Amino acid sequence: MTLAARLLIAFGVVAIIATALVGFTLREASRELIESGYLDRIDAAHAGVRQQLTWEAEALRGLLAPLCQHDTFVDRAHLELDRTRGNPDALDPGSRIALRHQVAEQAKALRLDELTLATGDGLVLGAEDVSRIGTKDRRLAALLGEVKSNDGKARQSKGSVVSGGAPRLRPAVAEMGPSLEVHCARTGHGVTLGLIGSRKIGPLLERLGAAYGVALATPMDGKIDPPALTSTSAEVVRLLEIPEVQGLRVVASVSREPLQKALARLDRDILATGATVLAIAIVIAVVLARSLSRPIVALARETREVMNGEPRKVQGRGGQEMATLAAAFNRTLDELATMRRRLATAERIAARREIARQVAHEIKNPLAPIRAAVETLRRLRDREDPAFDDYFEEATATVLQEVHRIANIVGEFTRFARLPPPNPELIDLVEVARRVVTLHSTPEAASDSREEHVAITPKVELSASTIPKVSADRDQLVQVLTNLIQNGLEAATSVRPDPRVVLTVAPEQNDRVRLVVRDNGPGVAEEMIPRLFEPYATTKEKGTGLGLAIVQRIVFEHGGEIRYRKAQKGGAVFEIWLPIGGPPLLEKPLHEQTARPLGDTPGKD
């Protein structure tokens, strides 16, 4: 399966699962939130209805109690009944007419839906409904009898006892729905007279329901059947108890239709969002698959070309990871190439070392006979042998000079062959370079010109940037810098009155540092450049040609590189690259890779 197909499947599955999880969670949370809002509305309506109905009941109670206690028309009606010894039939017709009008006017003034003036046996003396006047109502007689026996709420008023009943729900009567009813009674001289007032609660419930967004009704008004008092899938129903009003219960209901519509709309939005997310995920997967597969295919192709010998570096396109991979591959190739060059150089150095040992062995063997011959010649001369007088001094001087020269060559080759492997430690390379530059900047480095005998003061400068500490052999790096700076000063002094050498230390990519030694001398002759780092290759009259060979060996054994190039404005430029981490971990140090010949013991060759 290709990378593109895997990405398409992965992105599609992730998009579907994420949309399903988010959608289900969001839907359930929305449903719970909306239903919780419904219940909160019902609870708020319950509290509001209870508070409002309680307030209405207490207000009604406060309206009727003063009427029974000291209102004029109640006092007059009580006096008339007292005068007739409680016989309503003996009342004056004018008094009856006056009571009828006064009750209706009082009900209107108090904004009561119904107000009734009745005797203790339930005889209606005055009411808004004229047809009720003169009739007896057993319910009213029971209410007034109940008030008459309620001694806890009785009060004295003009020799009479006034008492009141608790607010209660009055069931629907005829066209009048359920009402909130209160009553009071006045008893004196064996005559009981009572007032019964009521207000419809239907308009109050409609007003409160509209305020809270809830449908409110009483179970006994004929609008709600007992089976409908339970919640269904179509609406949420709750029965509210109002303990402050006897017998009053309110049914609150909220339709679930808005919830169903909201959930249906949410489902549509989730499906649309899921489809959109899936489409976007597919597009992103296609684009990402192409952006990933193309660089990988290109990198694989370039890798094959490079491995087949194409002289170039692979390019990492398509992101930081691809660039890192390409850089790692290029770095590996560079390290392999460097290792290959280093091994070849090591082989050449090993061969040269073997030659140096053999040359030293061959040169040092004749030294004893030469020295013996010279001593013999000197002894003969001491005996005044005339055969040797003409050439004795010249021969001995020549022999001794060559012996000294051969000894120097042997010493240089021996030092080159026995150069120890690096002993790396963390050093401050800038400080090492500064000390070497300071050493070569002293006046003692001055010399006279060849013809004019004018003092020449060499100038050695350091240009350093901040670099981390490097793992290297301090003494060997001092030797490298000293050789290069001295070579530059000697070359520049031979042709210029102002010899100048500049040492530059700077960080380099791939965790390396770069050392550059630049002089203003004549540079290296073209014919010497191929043999520049070979032992005993030199243009100096008294040089051995081992200085740059030693420098190259030290640099290579530190895992670095050294190159020569000609400066644009004249002079020689030697560039050295050293790894910050120190010499590479080879199987064996370079000095151990070439075994000594059997019987070749150091110090005896």
Automatic annotation (TrEMBL):
InterPro entries: 2C_sensor_his_kinase, HAMP_dom, HATPase_C_sf, HATPase_dom, His_kinase_dom, HisK_dim/P_dom, HisK_dim/P_sf, Sig_transdc_His_kin-like_C. Gene3D superfamilies: 1.10.287.130, 6.10.340.10, Histidine kinase-like ATPase, C-terminal domain (3.30.565.10). Pfam families: HAMP, HATPase_c, HisKA. It catalyses: ATP + protein L-histidine = ADP + protein N-phospho-L-histidine. SUPFAM superfamilies: ATPase domain of HSP90 chaperone/DNA topoisomerase II/histidine kinase, Homodimeric domain of signal transducing histidine kinase. It comes from the Bacteria. Residues 358-582 form the Histidine kinase domain. One of its GO terms (molecular function) is phosphorelay sensor kinase activity. It is found in: Cell membrane. Residues 290-341 form the HAMP domain. Its EC number is 2.7.13.3. Keywords: ATP-binding, Cell membrane, Kinase, Membrane, Nucleotide-binding, Phosphoprotein, Transferase, Transmembrane, Transmembrane helix. The chain crosses the membrane at residues 6-26, 270-289. It is a multi-pass membrane protein. One of its GO terms (cellular component) is plasma membrane. This is histidine kinase.
